[in-house]
Amino acid sequence: MVNCPKCDYPQYCGCPACLPRLPEGYKPEIRNPNEGTLSCANCGYTQTYDGWLMIEEEQLKKQGKAW
Q1: Are 3 and 11 in contact (CB under 8 A)?
Q2: Concatenated DSSP letters for 16-59?
Q3: Distance CA 39, CA 16 (A)
Q4: 4 with 45: CB under 8 angstroms?
Q5: pTM reported for the whole predicted model
Q6: Phi and psi for 31 in degrees, rounded to 5?
Q7: 10-residue stretch averages of pLDDT, the chain, 67 residues long
């Protein structure tokens, strides 16, 4: 799971398969398919798909969960 680097809000997938498992009170990430980006549902921070993956990798490294 990745948290927004701007507001620390957890980014949850909003696909039909994941939506039922979304914790109560949380909003899923916002997909912008025409731009190839995802936005934080809390603050609107927007990044490319690859950008979000890089952020997630850095967060996992800080937690000692990635190489």
Answers
A1: yes
A2: TTTGGGSPTT--BPEEETTTTEEE-TTT--EEEHHHHHHHHHHH
A3: 18
A4: yes
A5: 0.86
A6: -90, 135
A7: 96 93 95 94 97 95 84
